[in-house]
Write a structure and sequence with these properties.
The protein has 81 residues and is mainly alpha-helical. It contains 2 helices and 2 strands.
Length: 81
């Protein structure tokens, strides 16, 4: 994979991360590449909720990527029939 392809893939994943974070009511901080809850940042509660937010967004991203992969495989299989 060349550098441009890696850059494009990273941008696509960051876009997916931002979209899912927004759907779940979280913020995606592009500066530090972190998902942030709406809890006050810099507090123990904020940190705990940020961890939960990151887990939820990561889980949704995984599900979304698996669904995309499944669809690609189905399309390839169906085109060979």
């Amino acid at each position: 994979m060349d550098i441009q392809s890696k850059t494009n893939a990273k941008q696509a994943l960051n876009s997916l991360k931002m979209e899912i974070a927004n759907e779940l009511g979280y913020n995606y901080n592009m500066t530090n590449d972190k998902i942030e809850s709406n809890a006050p940042q810099g507090t123990l509660e904020g940190q705990a909720k940020n961890v939960l937010a990151g887990e939820q967004v990561g889980g949704m991203m995984s599900r979304e990527l698996v669904q995309m992969g499944e669809q690609i495989l189905l399309d390839q299989y169906n085109s060979k029939k």
